[in-house]
Amino acid sequence: MSGARKHGEYVVAALLHDIGKLIRRAKLCNGVDAASHVEESLRFVDQIQDALKAAGLDVDHIKNLIREHHRGAYGVAPYDHAAASERAQGGRGLALENRHEGEIPLVIYIDGGKAAYVPPAPLPATLEEAEELAPRAESPPRNEVCNHYAKSYQRLMKLASELNGRKMGFQQLAETLVYVLRSAATFVPAAVYGVEAPDTSLYAHSVLAAALASTGGEFVLVALDVGKIQDYIRRARVTKGAMAILRGRSLMINLLQKIATRQLLEEVNKRLNAEVATWANVLLDTGGEVLLLLPHVEGLGQILEELEGRVLEDTEGVLTLYAAYTGPHRLDEVQNFKNLLTELERRVTERKMRYREYPSPGPKAPTRYDAVCDFCGRPAKTERIYIRDQSLDLCRLCRDEYHAGLSARNLKAVVVTRGGPPVAGHISQCEAASFKLLDYAVYVIGGDQCDADAFIEVVTRGGRGAAAYLANKPDAFIRRVDYVGYGFFFTNQYLPTEDGAVKSLEDLGDYAVFLKADANEMGKKKAAASAKPSLLLTFAAAVSTAYELYPALLASERRRDDIFVIYAGGDDLALAGGLAALKYASQTARYAERWGFRTAMGIKIDDPHVPIYYAWGEADARLKKAKTRGRDRNIAVVVTEPVEIWIDAEKLGNLYDYAEVDKLAGEEETKRLTRIIYNQLLKMYTAATQNHKKELAKATIELAYVLNRRGEDPQPAIRLVRRLSDLDIAPDNLPKLYNKLAKTDEETLEKLRTAILGLYLLHLKT
Q1: Is residue 367 part of a domain?
Q2: Domain check: are 527 and 580 in the same one?
Q3: Which of 107, 114, 151, 222 has the highest CB neighbour number within 10 Å of its CB?
């Protein structure tokens, strides 16, 4: 690449060349005169020109690149063309008939390629906004689409005004612009003319064009995959302090992939001797996986090898980073993206098969320790901390995770800065944890009275490469501190507390829920979306919205419930808590289904003192069983002994609601009778599923005897079962029920499972 070429101007021009489409459509919807999208993009550049100049960029050059971005091989035109592969579909005119360009929503594909429509709204900052965003089978009405365009335009202009008041370096500016586009344009269609369907988001197209523009026409694809996540999460020997440590552990995993990506970008730029690679080169960053499109650089393999080693060293072997790349590729090979990605995934898999030892042999091998961490069980140098009336001897990692978890009781932001050791002490009434990760100082900031801006100003002073990520704030993430890049992330912002201390599972009562979940057929869906890079980015946005954004906002809404969301990344979810966790998981699965995803869940309900590694091991085993029960439904496996009992996730939420309202508040005799009925129904289900007709007949007769011969009136209990499951267990209906169960009628078996689980939850609540 030519050293004379102004890489920064190319990247910014590629990011902003089509932003005028959003602006133009919003104006047209409101009956306001609108210029061409190119002219509107140029006006937008004028609105942030102070920030561009502060970053050392030539505003006139950026505007000229945008003005000419349709002109053959000039400037960013080749990269715009390569990123717009959806136009190769050969569509003509507007993508939807009888609508003007400001009335066309985004299309995504669900359930085997069926089109669904997403309104062009900004990223939600509230649960209500998230519900409004969910896809629907028919295109939203014109006025609704226009209203959402107006909201996205307002979000864009607000963020632009805040950005223009800040001074940043180029790297920080590029990262902030990426997040501005993500906030305002993730669900705005890029092209509505000349395509068969408006199925590529403006955010996806713009980031891809910017990544390609940074390469000069020769690129590599790089994958970073954080390994051992599930094993790492469940390494917990004690329950005291566990929820704070596990919450901090989840944050550490998310931070690790972000910081490893930052380090990679920095090392690439060192080799190129220029600020070429930026956050605009990051195509995907979710759920332990990162995909980058980077300029070709000599020695990339060595950079990745060293990065893997640093991660292994810094995490003391409990986490690994698998890094691989393909290329160099020519610009025209973007059209062959699916094959390139398939080859990259093959190389990542190949890399995972190669064993890498920790500690590495030789004079730099870590010291052998006699002490053992009370929490994770690793031999390590330990430090004693006190949790209420007990002490724990923790290794460095668990100690850092514990303090990060405490700061996440009311999480505000995470700050990353390149420079000296982390600043210690309380600042601006913030509860802050700090630690080193690779070459960066990391701060986890929280607290009810925390002044996040003041904290950011103190800890970023004198640091290089500073960035601040606000929790669940896509609408207000650019703060008032200069020379900091800004972004946002979605995560559980609260932890259940009592008198200011994070609760332990023992505080929840007699029972705790341990739950693991992930989406079905995600590999198949991802492969289908990989036909085009912009389509893959749009798909990733849908996954993130369903499994990261919505669960985070829902957790904030239900923060008074005893729910500990331990990990939510990609399509994976791990949580623990009281019975309210069942409703939370059910709502998450329901919302994800609206985006075309089906969720499998494994649930273990047990004594809160049970070892966490055992409980989550059981939940994981049940998750695997749930996946065998049908990948086209939201299935939760709750019981495996003496027989497997599973239920639709939405029904599980309904049963929880019923248990909340009813709680078996009737006579003691009714409570005793329902316990007997529960046991008999469980016997009947076990016999029916194992095809033991003799045992089924015996259990049915015993149930009839109980209902007919006991002194109390059985009708309240019979009505209760019917309300729970629509299952009629009245004595005169039992012969019919027996016949259906003997034939293993699936509809009847499902009602029976629902009745069993409903009674189970009612008794747990009682």
Answers
A1: no
A2: yes
A3: 222
Instruction: Look up the domain containing 426 and give its range.
Output: 409-489
Nearest to 629 by CA among 616, 644, 651: 644
Distance, in Å, from the CA atom of 36 to the CA atom of 38, rounded to the nearest integer, reads 5
Q: Note whether 45 and 184 are same-domain residues.
A: yes
Burial of 63 (0-12, 13-18, 19+ CB in 10 A): buried
Classified as helix, coil or strand, 184 is helix
- How many angstroms separate the CA atoms of 541 and 173, rounded? 22
Q: Which of 658, 680, 714 is the last residue of a domain?
A: 658
372 in Cβ contact with 380 (< 8 Å): yes
Encoding tokens for residue 531? 């036909």
Residues 69 and 202 in one domain: yes
Q: Is position 179 within any domain?
A: yes
* Torsional sign, CA 578, 579, 584, 588: positive
Phi-psi region of 317 (alpha: psi -120 to 50; beta: other; left: phi over 0): left
- The SS3 assignment for 235 reads coil
Q: What confidence tens digit (pLDDT) does each residue in 573-618 have? A: 889 998 889 999 999 999 999 999 999 999 999 988 888 888 989 9
Q: What is the pLDDT of residues 393-448, one digit of tens each?
A: 999 999 999 999 888 888 999 999 986 666 656 677 888 888 889 989 899 999 88
Three-state DSSP class for residue 603: strand
Taking CA atoms, 482 is separated from 45, 51, 61, 468, in Å, by 20, 10, 24, 11
Q: Is the model's pTM score more than 0.70?
A: yes
Do 561 and 632 sit in the same domain of this protein?
yes
Q: How far apart are CA 639 and CA 756, in angstroms?
A: 10
Which letter, b or e, does each residue of 409-423 get, where b requires 16 or more Cβ atoms within 10 Å of its Cβ? bbbbbbbbbbbeebb
Quote the radius of gyration of the chain (alpha carbons, Å): 28
Write out the two tokens for 69. 């971005």
In a domain, 714, yes or no: yes
